[in-house]
Amino acid sequence: MLSMTKTKKISLFLLLLFTIIAIFGTFQFSHQEQTVGKVMEEKTVHSEKQVDEHGNTDKLTTQQVKLLILNHKYKGKEVTITNTYSYSQIKDHHYHKNEYVYIDVSHQGKELFGTLLELKRDHFLIILVSLLLFLLILIYDLSGILTFFSFILNGAILCLLFWWYKQINSHLLLLLFIAGIPLIVTLTLTVANGWNKKTKIAITSTVIGSAVTFLIGFLVIELLAHKGLRYEEMELVTRPPHILFLSSLLIGCVGAVMDVSMTIISSLYELTQTKPNVTKEEITETGKKIGEDIMGPMINIMFFSYLSGAIPLILIFLRNNMSFNYAFSIVLSLEVARALVGSIGIVLTIPLSIKLTTFFLRRGALNER
């Protein structure tokens, strides 16, 4: 059963208070830039079945949505807007009574006209983030808070890198990431685990493992002149697509390597704490067994996480009578490349982490003083 310390109770109470205030703030519409409306009534006026040349069917439904405007110039007035949505609702939405939406309102004479922009979802996002933080505090206490803080910190660093990239030469994104990755790794592991010898070994292992893995992937891709990689999904991007891909490849390498590295080093560190007289051979053998246990699941996680996002697009291609080979090459070539390089990183990091741990142990670096 989870123990509730005084600090944990105070943290959970403050989180609940913050969540209530944040959700309350999302409904203070006068402070929001976009016009917000509440759906008062909605009714279906027309429904039509459509069939394309490949035999795929869809259903288009037209509804009339009566909205009460909640802020800005037309606050308190009502406007009726016609909305058309498909059965799949991929690019549109079926609006229901009491939902809040962002709208664009104009007038011609005394008559108001409006356009539905999107559903207002910010309060749902606050609830999800608060739920995550609640579970982190409830189960992991201070370490959970530090984990969440490191996540926010890394997000801020990445946003700063992207902002900087927007201001400078379009070919420098990869160099920015190469320069920023050691900082991200150091902050993540230090905030989560503190500045100790275990963290130093994990940082060293992550940086070396990520660098070697990315270098292997980069050399293979460059030697093959990017053959087999299809950048069509980046056709709307105005920056060099191969630079963006290589940058995402580097980020993926760091994520995979850091996870495996910290798992193995933490386990071996705990072994040395519970059994101070453990030999280097025992540490190596234990590390190998841990590596064998986590390698398979981690590689599968890499493939599933990268490929899962492409499933909807693959189905669209196949439903439109495109061959599997064509759909695979267009949609999955970049995802498979990321997954393969990340898997190489997992395989390389296991022996690297074991070697670094035994090396520092031999010098007495793992024994906390």
UniProtKB/TrEMBL annotation:
Q: Which residues form a coiled coil?
A: none
Q: Name one Pfam family in it.
A: YibE_F
Membrane-crossing residues? 12-30, 123-140, 145-165, 171-189, 201-223, 243-265, 298-319, 339-361
Alphabetized, the UniProt keywords read: Membrane, Transmembrane, Transmembrane helix
Q: Which domain of life is it from?
A: Bacteria
Q: Which InterPro entries match?
A: YibE_F
PANTHER family on file: MEMBRANE PROTEIN (PTHR41771:SF1), MEMBRANE PROTEIN-RELATED (PTHR41771)
* Full protein name: YibE/F family protein
